[in-house]
Amino acid sequence: MTAVPRTLPLRLTPIPGEALDSWLEALARRMNTPLGGVLSHFGFPSRGRSGNHLRDIPPDWTIALRDHETAAIAHATGVAPAVITAMTLAFYDQRALSIDLERRHVNRRVLWGRGRGSRFCPDCLTTSGGRWQLAWRLGWAFACTLHHRLLADNCPNCDQVQRERPRSGKAVPPPSICGNLRAHPDGPPTGGCGFDLTQTRTLQLPARHPALKAQQ
Ligand SMILES: [Zn+2]
Ligand SMILES: [Zn+2]
Asked: For residue 123, which ligand has an atom nearest its CA?
């Protein structure tokens, strides 16, 4: 990455607690640009089928950014570097989880790390217009204290975890829609699941439920 990134034509403030991938997707939607267009705006190399780690492309940009990547995003978006770092799991490194910063992997067996993927609160997705919380990626996140319900583990349609794999850079990412490929062995291999994740049902808890207290 050598060229100075261009400034994006519009601004979009991250919502409190938002994950980096969610914000980048919201930016792409706001600009009606494929996600890959936003990343190339920052000068990020595009992901290939293989050999990504050799080119220092992480499995997921939300895990950790190099300093020059943070600076590129800050320059292009006008958002402060510290705010950008706080949208990555590196924000929790050595507190809630442990990240192999060389390879940019979350160590699954240490603290509250989960390898990849994110739980989600369907109500939060509804009220935020499809913005995802970073904390949903932590192993300890199991309930939404705002909506008094358990977080969803999987898409109820394809039964897969969300955000285990990077989203396609070729499309404008739709909000709250499951982008996983259909896992059913008889299903078509392409086309994606397409389920509206805001319609996911999870257990509702009474406001004073001990699980909500524990989550707080
Ligand atoms: Zn919620
Ligand atoms: Zn699905």
From this structure: 1
Query: Which H helix or E strand runs over 100?
Result: strand 99-100
The pLDDT tens digits for 58-108 are 888 999 999 999 999 999 999 999 999 999 999 988 888 888 888 888 887
**Distance from residue 146's CA to the centre of ligand 1 (Å):** 5
Pairing of strands 105-106, 99-100: antiparallel
Residue 75, domain extent: 20-215
Residue 207 in any domain: the answer is yes
Domain for residue 68, yes or no?
A: yes
Separation of CA 66 and ligand 1 centre (Å): 31
Q: What is the number of structural domains in the chain?
A: 1
Ion ligand 2 neighbours (CB, 5 A) are: 155, 157-158, 178, 180, 193, 195
Q: What is the pLDDT of residues 105-121, one digit of tens each?
A: 888 777 766 767 999 99
pTM: 0.89
First to last CA, the chain: 41
Going from the Cα of 215 to the center of ligand 2, the distance in angstroms, rounded, reads 26
